[in-house]
Specification:
By secondary structure, the chain is α/β, with parallel strands linked by helices. It has ten helices and 14 strands. The N and C termini lie far apart (42 Å).
Length: 340
């Protein structure tokens, strides 16, 4: 059996596959890596393209779109390779992108997963929004990256080229131990899309496993290929999923206080949308919070399972202050300016 399965989840991404699969094929050593496309019920010519132009790529077709979480869960359930790469269809990889991450996973069994340095495909001197050089959250659950805080994306000058521990690896390009993924229950399918990889990494971090960013491995990500940043559906999913993630993973002594503060922060965000005339995003925030409270009872069992394990390890990758305060009040718009 080969060591690595590179799994690309596709939904109507015929042109992306045609553009980006060649780099994955060229730079994934065939002697120890398989490339697999899991297709989420595409209605374009993706399947025909794969069969005719990329016959070496394995195919797992689904009957419908199960979302990012559901698609990957169903695909990885069928995989027995020791390591799995979750790779977006709009990522260009570079030579030797897998060698160092695979070596680290083979040598250090405390590491659950690894992400490379992720740079922008369209502006190659800059980091890419979705993952940059590794993910973190602040004490209230707001995610940010080494190289990207909110919409402030840094130019890569090598300032984050040191390998480091991170809280979460982006689902755009994440190498993870297959059995740990399965044991943890995979991505939470209720999330459908957005922040499910943060939730998964946080769950494994609570168990004592680590995630790393290895900047010696570099990939380029287009990003924004599904929903734009201003899309109300994306706003809804981000707010709802973030609250569900906090409910699942925060210990009891912190949860109540955090949710109280998030009430005010979320509606402050809604007011900002209102003043900008983004009325559908105002509604999205309201309905996200409403659905969160409607779903709490359905998530109690998940929370109990996470919280009933061994005492949670200290997680230094969670910023002990507010990233909003740091960014807007203190003017700390670069990761290197933050104080952990």
């Amino acid at each position: 059996m080969k060591k690595v399965a590179v799994v690309i989840l596709n939904w109507n991404g015929q042109e992306l596959l045609r553009q980006f699969l060649p780099s994955v094929i060229a730079h994934t050593p065939g002697e120890w890596g398989d490339i697999i496309v899991a297709d989420n019920g595409s209605t374009d010519q993706s399947l025909t393209l794969l069969r005719e132009e990329f016959p070496s790529v394995q195919l797992i077709p689904f009957d419908k779109n199960y979302g990012f979480a559901g698609g990957y869960n169903r695909a990885i359930e069928q995989i027995e390779h020791p390591f799995t790469v979750l790779l977006n269809s709009d990522v260009e990889v570079t030579p030797h992108w897998l060698e160092e991450p695979v070596r680290i996973l083979e040598e250090d069994h405390t590491v659950a997963g690894i992400q490379p340095k992720i740079k922008s495909y369209r502006q190659k001197e800059k980091f890419e929004y979705a993952g940059a050089c590794g993910g973190y959250i602040d004490k209230y659950g707001y995610p940010f990256c080494r190289g990207r805080i909110f919409t402030e994306v840094e130019t890569d000058h090598g300032q984050y080229d040191t390998p480091t521990s991170i809280l979460w690896a982006t689902g755009a390009c994440m190498l993870i131990r297959t059995q740990l993924y399965k044991k943890a229950g995979g991505l939470d399918e209720y999330f459908f899309a957005h922040q499910e990889e943060i939730d998964l990494c946080w769950r494994l971090r609570i168990q004592g496993y680590r995630f790393l960013c290895l900047p010696t491995s570099v990939v380029y990500h287009v990003g924004g290929a599904s929903l734009s940043k201003e899309n109300p559906r994306k706003t809804f999913l981000n707010f709802r999923n973030n609250l569900l993630m906090l409910y699942k993973n925060l210990p009891g002594k912190e949860l109540e206080k955090t949710l109280r503060i998030r009430f005010w922060l979320d509606y402050l965000a809604a007011c900002k949308f209102l003043l900008s005339g983004e009325f559908k995003n105002v509604s999205a925030v309201y309905h996200a919070r409403k659905e969160f409270y409607q779903q709490i009872n359905n998530f109690k069992e998940k929370r109990q399972k996470i919280q009933s394990g061994p005492p949670a390890v200290s997680i230094p990758e969670i910023l002990p202050s507010s990233i909003l305060w740091n960014f807007y009040a203190k003017g700390r718009k670069k990761f290197s300016n933050l104080k952990f």
